[in-house]
Amino acid sequence: MEKTLNEKQKLSDYITKLVVIAILTIASIIVVLPVIWIVLSAFKTGSSLFSSTILPQEYTLIHFKELFTETDFPIWYLNTLKIATINMLISVVITSITAYAFARFKFKGRKISLMAILVLQMFPAILAMTAIYIILMKFGLLDTHLGLILIYAVGQIPYNTWLVKGFMGAIPKSLDEAARIDGASNITIFTKIIFPLSRPILVLVALTNFMGPWFDYIFPRLVIKTASKKTLAMGLFEWVRSQSTTHFTRFAAGAILVAVPIAILFVYLQKHLVHGLAQGATKG
Amino acid sequence: MKRVKKSMILSSIFMGLGQFYNKDYVKGIIFSLVEVIFLLRLPGIFENIHGLITLGEEPQKFVNGVIVQGDHSIYMLINGAITLIVVTLFAMIYIYNVNDAQKTAKAVKAGKKPLKLKAFLKEVLNKNFPQLMITPAFIGIVVFTILPILFTVLLSFTNYSSPNYLPPRNLVSWVGLKNYKNLFELDIWNGTFIKVAIWTLQWAGISTVLNYIVGMFLAILVNYKGIKFKKFWRTILMLPYAIPAFISLLVFRLGLSGPGPINNILGQLGLEKIAFFTDPFIAKIMIIVINLWLGAPYFMILMSGILTNIDAALYEAADIDGANAWQKFRNITFPMVLFQTAPILIMTFAFNFNNFNIIYLLTDGNPVNSNFKYAGSTDILITWVFKMTNDQGQYHMASVVAIVLFIFIALVSIYSLKRTKSFEEEDMI
């Protein structure tokens, strides 16, 4: 009697497992199909979106070669790399010192500043595009990479300050006090204790700011006019947004060259990213 | 007390005088320099304020076939906005200067000597260290966030729009609350606003909840006991999160377009093509479904972490009590996960509410809707604002909608954040 019950249990366990694997398989196929399509397209001959067969009949590397010989793709890549790197450096410095001030010091206007950046963070910059355009024009920053970098580096301050402040707040204050007794100044405490100990969250800030410019096509289109100053996202976007999608296969090849490094970085750092995001939401 | 009062009065008359009176030369020089610079700039400041009030009086003219430039209202508006901020900052420094005169006088009365330059700098670095640290961020935020918001607010009270009020050809003028009245009372604006707002709420609500549920479902499946290759499944399923969204969205747009592969296959099978993005209803469904593809992996990864951290003893106790799988989910898993992810759920809603990318890249707000003013059937509020700004030159109404949108999203976010832990922490209050 007991044995059959056990076997029944085993059987139903087995079936559930099969169902779970089946669903996971279906979900994975749905996830992977668009990816496979774009990868195959990049190796397809011709340039059009339309193809008469599901799988390409011939495979070619010509589109990748074209990217580097016939288009501005390498220039865009370098531009984006430059903007991303500078944005990352400025953002980490500015965010970490701002968060340090809020996490460790009580000063007049602290609370109201914190509240203010919390509210300001809700204002999407897209809503103020006209204003940003005119301000950049006024300061002579239109059509410059610096203008773009400033938009990014300032735009990230509110959210990331909260994120980093939450993390720094959790570092024991006794460490600072011990150092202060030894005669360390505020700056020394920051560079020798707080900054190194905040590395996990600052890596997250660095990473998100490094990746931002690779995705953004909106502000480059607002700010940049000269062809040689374009960024990757902007260039790729323009290839497929014209009504005639004649550069489709070229877009596919370019998209792969952008997405693969980013995706690898993401998968590699997944725990870090999600942990940081979750912490930012609960800790403030 | 006399000395204190005298110092304060002196500093109110001219910045730094009170400090000089107390022989605090370093601060006296700094404060008076601020005032001197301000006074030197005064003519410009008055001109800018005047410009802000009038928004220009001299329109562009043709004289003997040559264009004579008139006033440019929008430059005057931005200069006026900058001036407003400068004057506010100056007023704050002025008040600070008077307070400082009081403090200095009290210190002198108590027998303290004012600091020399070197000691003063050291003192500032020490005492005002946090203020110094936040200064770069403060300047950046004032220029690139506060100034644009102020400018947008000001614009919403003007008639700055194409084709009749477009500088440098025309002047722009103040219209008071007219734009706000139009948005809420004029049928064509109001109808568009309400319907676009409803779709925005529907879209944000449905997609957030759907992504949440599917993400949780996937997380439970991946973490189901006895499933092998957990890491493999997780890595595959998180791919959409890892690929830059603007690329995957463009891929979907092309893949589901008229000549794209899906319709191509349907055609070869002898079936009719599906108007994925040209039928309003199907387009809306597609937006939600594609966002599920993009967004569910995020929740899956997030919840995988939480699921593995739930105390196994809870499930063991439930097993002993004879609970089935559904009961365990309902009474242990779900409450635990919901408790930890509630703030993120609200943040995601706020994010989707303004999810510009997905609408702009997938449908561009299309198909066209002739009942709407400057909006398509799938436009949400933020893409509508973008269209009015970017394509139609309706800057005045775009600003009004932007302000309304900002107020709404700020209220929701503040309300929800106030209920989370970060506000209860002592250092917040």
Overview of this protein structure:
The complex is a heterodimer of chains A (284) and B (429). By secondary structure, chain A is mainly alpha-helical. Chain A has one domain: MetI-like fold (Orthogonal Bundle). Chain A is 76% helix and 0% strand. Chain A has 14 helices and no strands. The longest helix of chain A is centred in the N-terminal third of the chain and has 41 residues. The radius of gyration of chain A is 25 Å and the shape is flat. With 429 residues, chain B is mostly helical. Chain B has 19 helices and two strands. Chain B has a two-stranded antiparallel sheet. In chain B, helix 4 runs antiparallel to helix 6, helix 8 runs parallel beside helix 13 and helix 15 runs antiparallel to helix 18. The C terminus of chain B is likely disordered. At the A-B interface, helix 1, helix 3, helix 4, helix 5 and helix 6 of A face helix 4, helix 6, helix 8, helix 9 and helix 10 of B.
Descriptive key words:
heterodimer; A: 284 residues; mainly alpha; MetI-like fold; B: 429 residues; 2 domains; two-stranded antiparallel sheet; 19 helices; 2 strands; disordered C terminus
Topology readout:
The complex is a heterodimer of chains A (284) and B (429).
Chain A lengths: L1 H41 L19 H8 L3 H32 L5 H11 L8 H10 L6 H11 L1 H13 L3 H9 L4 H12 L1 H17 L2 H6 L8 H10 L6 H21 L1 H14 L1
Helix pairs in contact in A: 1-13, 2-13, 3-6, 3-7, 3-10, 4-7, 7-14, 8-9, 12-13
Chain B lengths: L1 H12 L3 H5 L3 H30 L6 E3 L2 E3 L4 H37 L7 H11 L1 H27 L22 H8 L1 H36 L7 H8 L1 H4 L2 H11 L5 H8 L11 H30 L2 H9 L4 H29 L2 H7 L18 H10 L4 H24 L2 H4 L5
Antiparallel strand pairs in B: 1-2
Helix pairs in contact in B: 1-4, 3-4, 4-6, 6-18, 7-8, 8-13, 8-15, 11-16, 13-15, 15-18, 17-18
